[in-house]
Amino acid sequence: MAKLTPRSENYSQWYNELVVKADLAEQSAVRGCMVIKPYGYAIWEKMQRILDEKFKETGVQNAYFPLLIPKNFLSREAEHVEGFAKECAVVTHHRLMKDPEGNGVVVDPEARLEEELIIRPTSETIIWNTYKNWITSWRDLPILCNQWCNVMRWEMRTRLFLRTAEFLWQEGHTAHATSQEAQEEAIRMVNVYADFARNYMAMPVVVGHKSPNERFAGALDTLTIEAMMQDGKALQAGTSHFLGQNFAKAFDVQFANKEGALEYVWATSWGVSTRLMGALIMCHSDDNGLVLPPALAPHQVVMVPIFGSAEQLEAILAKMETLKARLAAKGISVKIDSRDNLRPGFKFAEWEMKGVPVRVAIGGRDLENGTVEVARRDTLTKESLSFEGVENYIETLLKDIQANIYKKAEDFRAANVQKVDSWDEFKEKIQNGGFLLCHWDGTKETEEKIKAETKATIRCIPEDSFICEEEGKCIYSGKPSSRRVIFAISY
RNA sequence: CGGGAUGUAGCGCAGUUGGUAGCGCACCACGUUCGGGACGUGGGGGUCGUCUGUUCGAGUCAGAUCAUCCCGACCA
Question: Cα A13 to the chain's mean position, in Å?
Fold first, then answer.
């Protein structure tokens, strides 16, 4: 891999190369779609498992809704259709036939659908059409469903994990009797995401509200977790929307309240996608490849034997199996790389590329001395330790690494957040990346003009960090403002 | 859809004024190696994106077409 620092001009190229070389994913033959390889999928599965558990702790249940959505469903909610219409894949026929002219198969013109079906770009519409049948009384509420699925958005330009035409995600859709309850749900879930990002992905995020311009199509409020990548750009890593009664009205979902009066249901939706994989890569990787947080690494420890003869290998593998069992007892996952056609140096480099947090090497010297070599991926340092009891050391080391890469990312972010109060300064500094905390007059017009001139958008109005409530003047219009918001150039 | 580039072995590339296709990596076999991306010897693999034309002859020239990538517009 070309030696490229994360902040170099070729960051994009570096990223693509890393995704492929770390064996996470590759471009598929289908336009804009990606193949997630087993190693990449193992990380995604781990993310899924952890998130799923957290959802269930809040009372959410999993369900599944159809891939195809009748076209008219999408047009029920005006803003929603506006937001997604331009990027939908449409199913128009249900049959193929042999080409009469002999060129393989063609679409059978007789099999045209009366109403076209849309491949879901998101499932609000089909789900609310279904919820209509589930809800009649206040006793039916709340409904808290989540689905793990794929969705498709016909993006003009795609990037592995960050923006692909098809992506995997979870989408939660909840129905509530009151506005307040729905808003609390949206807040609860964005905090689940923030907790996951911080404590598992080791990625610092800011929780905040989206400005009206950046809101989800059809939402009254969108909460977001925003992360900073190593090139200083912002990445929206997850969102949670308060949908008000928009979808209930569009799909006529009413319930009888305790007084017997009919009311429209209040809704939320929330989701995170395989984009989290992109965030994970861009947040921690270095010139030697991926750096995985121990909490998400498919193998937390990889063991590499260094051997000359088959007998020596056997002796080393026996020791490794012993250590593996001791680590497994602590819930630590271990991979023993016993391939005999590759040299140790090659394996070291390969596992570093794949981001395995801890590497253990045992060779002839170690057999004699009763030692092992332990190397950590985040700092690329290694040391020789006594074999006996090393499992305790490794257990602690994994926790250290988890904490250390979080701190590293947090320090990086801290170094790239600043308050800016003049427009000239803003224009200059925004090009270097990072978050700029600025006053904004709260209008759509100002936000759009800033975007047009600098490509920067309001990433969020921060709610749990970088809160800065103070009087000031809008950076662009000079009008009064009571708090700062975060501007950045984003993915 | 605008602007730029590229299609030759699994991957990365070379191929001169047109003469019948090569290099590195990877792969297979054997041997020597093995504490930071090993080396030797031998071997397998290509209708040069597609179509049409020019020519005795096209990877090379011309036209068309398809595809991919990068920079924008769109977006999680």
Answer: 20
Positions on chain B within 7 A of a protein C-beta:
1, 27, 33-38, 67-76
- How do residues A77-106 score in pLDDT, each as one tens digit? 888 888 888 888 888 889 888 777 666 677
ipTM of the complex: 0.86
Residue A256: its pLDDT value, please?
98
pTM of the predicted protein model: 0.95
Whether A457 and A483 have beta carbons less than 8 Å apart is answered as no
Q: How far apart are CA A45 and CA A40, in angstroms?
A: 9
CA nearest A361: which of A377, A337, A380? A337
Q: Is the CB of A23 under 7 A from strand B?
A: no
A214: which DSSP letter?
G
Query: Domains in chain A and their CATH numbers?
Result: 11-66+124-284 (3.30.930.10), 301-400 (3.40.50.800), 417-488 (3.30.110.30)
The percent of residues above 90 in pLDDT, for chain A, comes to: 75
Q: Which of residues 32-91 of A touch strand B (CB under 7 A)?
A: 83, 86-87
